[in-house]
């Protein structure tokens, strides 16, 4: 039997390898780390999480991300198995202990008898054999140049940002209080999964002034500020208007200060638990391109973080992705070289779950082809199907940008009754998707 080669051991590559091997196809997983590192990765483990530790909403009835979780679980996805095993309390979200999660994914892959491993960087696109390129947003320069040469098109770039992480014991809990927004979660632990730092109007205004005045890291030559709106640096948000942050990551709604319940905060900074031990918290939505010294000074202006000690400061980096609607077919194959499939963030999906989902599809499609079968994608009324449809033809190529899964990508369902009608419509979306996805899985034997 022919072997499937996968370049990249991130979310997409790990999931693709697992799915193909589960179908009985031998896999070689190529990963350049740790021999060749990136500035964002710290280990050589597979599926290392370098930005947030959250897989976002786990509501599979009224949320498109939660529905994607459901579909990946139904397909025996490795990423979701390990996320569930190493889950942390996070209100209605699915957050994980990032180190334990990555170690578990690595152990599972290394123990599979059909998966072998090849170290070292691949600098040119292979000309023959079955390959999945899942090199993610930090594709090495040499391989990116090879992709450009083969596709004959300019790869696009956007900037993805890393939020800072604070040591829990350096947060002043006489100022900060524990509460998930709107007390979301079924257990008390989930309802208190976040630490909240309140700001008065004067404190907020002073914070915005410092944010705008802080020294920022310059862009490298040839880079442009084509930020993805879902992951904007806080200083860029502030530049769009002084109130922008107060209606974004610093919104005070759904929160009551346990220390001063009668005083409504003007703004609130939230920190989310980042590991199972509860020793680390990340500052939610606080991606930044401020220089390290400026970050420390500005973030210590936040009430409760005056003496904060940082396990990691924020950063921002260039991400490369294909103009997939012009380059890939609906089986995620490169039109110019159909033996090559692409998966993950390099295809223009955004987010851990979306990347892993595209790896799941690419792995199954490639394995099916090796086994002499053709596997179409699931219908566009499923979460996975809506994403792959969007990136391989549903999006406008001229304005193509990275996309999270959302109900706007699904074939519409009519709803009546205003806001309540929308909630019912979301449930109708997920009911329809689950039926279609279940049929797609059943059709594969």
UniProtKB/TrEMBL annotation:
Q: InterPro entries annotated for this entry?
A: FAD/NAD-bd_sf, MnmG-rel, MnmG-rel_CS, MnmG_N, TrmFO
* Transmembrane domains' residue ranges: none
> Which GO molecular function annotations are given, in alphabetical order?
flavin adenine dinucleotide binding; tRNA (uracil(54)-C5)-methyltransferase activity, 5,10-methylenetetrahydrofolate-dependent
Q: Which residues form the MnmG N-terminal domain?
A: 4-373
Query: Where is it located?
Result: Cytoplasm
Q: What is its main location?
A: cytoplasm
Q: Which GO terms describe its cellular component?
A: cytosol
Cofactor(s) required for function per UniProt: FAD
UniProt keyword list: Cytoplasm, FAD, Flavoprotein, Methyltransferase, NAD, NADP, Transferase, tRNA processing
Q: Which reaction does it catalyse?
A: uridine(54) in tRNA + (6R)-5,10-methylene-5,6,7,8-tetrahydrofolate + NADH + H(+) = 5-methyluridine(54) in tRNA + (6S)-5,6,7,8-tetrahydrofolate + NAD(+); uridine(54) in tRNA + (6R)-5,10-methylene-5,6,7,8-tetrahydrofolate + NADPH + H(+) = 5-methyluridine(54) in tRNA + (6S)-5,6,7,8-tetrahydrofolate + NADP(+)
EC number(s) in its UniProt entry? 2.1.1.74
Q: Which GO terms describe its biological process?
A: tRNA methylation; tRNA wobble uridine modification
- Name a Pfam family for this protein: GIDA
According to the lineage, what is the superkingdom?
Answer: Bacteria
Which amino acid positions bind FAD, per UniProt?
Answer: 8-13
Gene3D superfamilies documented for this protein: FAD/NAD(P)-binding domain
> Which family is annotated?
Belongs to the MnmG family. TrmFO subfamily.
Q: What does this protein do?
A: Catalyzes the folate-dependent formation of 5-methyl-uridine at position 54 (M-5-U54) in all tRNAs.
NCBIfam families the UniProt entry points to: gid_trmFO (TIGR00137), PRK05335.1 (NF003739)
This chain belongs to the protein called: Methylenetetrahydrofolate--tRNA-(uracil-5-)-methyltransferase TrmFO
From what organism does this protein derive? Answer: Paenirhodobacter populi
């Amino acid at each position: 039997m022919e072997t499937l080669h996968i370049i990249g051991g991130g979310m997409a590559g790990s999931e693709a390898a697992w799915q193909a091997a589960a179908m009985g196809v031998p896999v070689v997983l190529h990963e350049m780390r740790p021999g060749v590192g990136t500035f964002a990765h710290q280990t050589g483990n597979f599926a290392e999480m370098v930005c947030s530790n959250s897989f976002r909403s786990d509501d599979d009835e009224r949320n498109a991300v939660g529905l994607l979780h459901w579909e990946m679980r139904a397909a025996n996805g490795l990423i979701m198995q390990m996320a569930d095993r190493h889950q942390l309390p996070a209100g209605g979200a699915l957050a994980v202990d990032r180190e334990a999660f990555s170690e578990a994914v690595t152990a599972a892959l290394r123990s599979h008898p059909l998966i072998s491993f090849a170290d070292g960087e691949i600098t040119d696109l292979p000309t023959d054999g079955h390959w999945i390129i899942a090199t993610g947003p930090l594709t090495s320069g040499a391989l990116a140049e090879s992709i450009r040469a083969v596709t004959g098109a300019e790869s696009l770039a956007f900037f993805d940002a890393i939020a800072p992480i604070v040591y829990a014991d350096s947060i002043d809990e006489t100022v900060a209080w524990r509460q998930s927004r709107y007390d979301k979660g079924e257990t008390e632990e989930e309802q208190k999964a976040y630490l909240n730092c309140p700001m008065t109007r004067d404190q907020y205004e002073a914070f915005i002034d410092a944010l705008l005045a802080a020294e920022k890291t310059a862009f490298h030559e040839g880079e442009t500020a084509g930020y993805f709106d879902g992951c904007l640096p806080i200083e860029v948000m502030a530049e769009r208007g002084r109130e922008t942050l107060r209606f974004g990551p610093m919104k005070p709604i759904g929160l009551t200060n346990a220390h001063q319940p009668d005083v409504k905060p003007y703004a609130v900074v939230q920190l989310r638990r980042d590991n199972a031990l509860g020793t680390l918290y990340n500052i939610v939505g606080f991606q930044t391109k401020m220089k390290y010294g400026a970050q420390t000074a500005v973030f210590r202006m936040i009430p409760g973080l005056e003496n904060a000690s940082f396990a990691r400061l924020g950063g921002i980096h260039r991400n490369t992705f294909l103009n997939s609607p012009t380059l890939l077919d609906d089986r995620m194959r490169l039109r110019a070289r159909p033996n090559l499939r692409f998966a993950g963030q390099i295809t223009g999906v955004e987010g851990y779950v979306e990347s892993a989902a595209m790896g799941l599809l690419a792995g199954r499609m490639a394995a099916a082809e090796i086994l002499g079968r053709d596997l179409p994608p699931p219908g566009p009324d499923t979460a996975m199907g809506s994403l792959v449809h969007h990136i391989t033809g549903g999006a406008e190529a001229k304005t193509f940008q990275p996309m999270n899964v959302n109900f706007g990508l699904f074939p519409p369902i009519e709803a009546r009754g205003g806001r309540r009608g929308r909630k019912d419509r979301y449930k109708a979306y997920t009911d329809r998707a689950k039926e279609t996805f279940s049929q797609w899985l059943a059709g594969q034997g």
